[in-house]
Design brief:
- There is one protein chain.
- The chain is mainly α.
- The protein is built from 14 helices and 5 strands.
- Helix 6 packs antiparallel against helix 7.
- The protein is elongated and about 85 Å long.
Length: 358
């Protein structure tokens, strides 16, 4: 079992090898939507389980429940007193970090009691048993690892609870539906919930991209518009999650909290990088489609040499960052560079040819 989960996240999330079916067979099943919110917002979360296997599976299931959104905080499927961050995570002098911990040692029931959200997992029940509904418990009631299974938190959910998914999974337990089918139902539920939440953000961020007609080969690529929280909130009235989700509640409040989270920061950085690279690619394509030989006739040798150096730099960056270009764009750019160099006096040609390969 890997203790440092973030190193293996990509593979685990893509394969979804760790099923979340076992969440049905314990009291926390009734609070899966609350737990989805806690994971989405990157809240500090402890899973207390009777065994390393159950601890690890539960932590990995929680990380997967916000897929396809990447969980950007740290997570430890099996955390022990020997981990280097033990003192950092158990100290009461600072707020717990954004991390999901899976533990089994009874010692943690006391040392992690100050964490805001704790999930206590009991022994997994056989497939025929239907879990009884359990209310969210107060943290002060969690004193030992022998405490009853459940969710210990004072967190108030932003969204109303979805009774339909609870009935659907309970019916599966009664009918002894195969675990693979139960797992598929829950995965689809979490996927649709996450997509309903993230689609309005995707739509708004896509609008920050400049129009393609504003991209000129003779100017630097235009800048992306800055992300405005208030502008985004305005879009939710007509194009919010209500278009794809049946859930009611304070979606606006959930978005505002999400925008402060590590998960938003990681998602936005990734999207910003993708769009910046797309702008660079479109600018390169505009350069390749331009008639540069006519341009150089109207400019001085100094300006032409400067253009060659900039084109060479763009060629290197395009290869280095694997920009999303059409197949023949780099070939065209290479030919442009060679043609421009050939138009210059021989002494300049030799200097530019020495200054890196063309």
């Amino acid at each position: 079992i890997h203790k440092r989960g973030h190193r293996h996240q990509g593979k685990q999330r893509n394969l979804l090898a760790y099923k979340i079916t076992h969440l049905c067979f314990c009291p926390i099943f009734f609070h899966v939507q609350m737990i989805w919110e806690l994971v989405l917002l990157g809240e500090p979360l402890v899973v207390m389980a009777p065994s390393p296997a159950e601890s690890s599976e539960t932590v990995l299931a929680l990380v997967c429940c916000v897929s396809p959104l990447k969980y950007c905080s740290d997570f430890r499927p099996y955390f022990t007193i020997h981990d280097s961050e033990f003192k950092e995570y158990t100290t009461r002098t600072q707020a717990p970090p954004s991390v999901i911990l899976g533990v089994t040692n009874p010692f943690f029931a006391k040392t992690l009691q100050h964490w805001p959200h704790i999930i206590r997992i009991g022994d997994m029940k056989p497939a025929g048993d239907i879990p009884k509904q359990v209310k969210v418990k107060k943290l002060k009631n969690l004193k030992t690892l022998d405490s009853k299974p459940g969710v210990y938190t004072s967190y108030k959910t932003f969204l109303s609870r979805d009774e339909e998914i609870i009935k659907q999974v309970q019916k599966g337990i009664q009918q002894k539906r195969p675990s693979e089918a139960q797992s598929a139902i829950l995965r689809r539920y979490f996927l649709e919930l996450t997509q309903s939440f993230i689609i309005p953000l995707e739509r708004y961020v896509a609008s920050l991209m400049p129009l393609q007609k504003s991209i000129s080969p003779w100017k630097s690529p235009p800048q992306l518009k800055p992300f405005s929280e208030e502008e985004f909130m305005k879009t939710l009235e007509k194009a919010g999650p209500q278009l794809t989700s049946r859930l009611k509640g304070d979606w606006i409040g959930l978005y505002r909290q999400f925008l402060k989270s590590p998960n938003f920061d990681g998602w936005f950085r990734s999207r910003w990088k993708e769009m910046t690279q797309k702008l660079e690619a479109l600018h390169l394509e505009a350069l390749c489609d331009a008639d540069l030989l006519i341009w150089i006739q109207k400019h001085t040798e100094v300006e032409v040499v400067d253009l060659v150096l900039k084109l060479k730099e763009k060629l290197v960056q395009a290869k280095q960052y694997c920009l999303p270009l059409k197949q023949d764009t780099l070939e065209k750019l290479q030919l442009h560079i060679e043609a421009i160099i050939c138009s210059l006096p021989e002494d300049l040609q030799s200097i530019l040819l020495k200054n890196g390969t063309t």
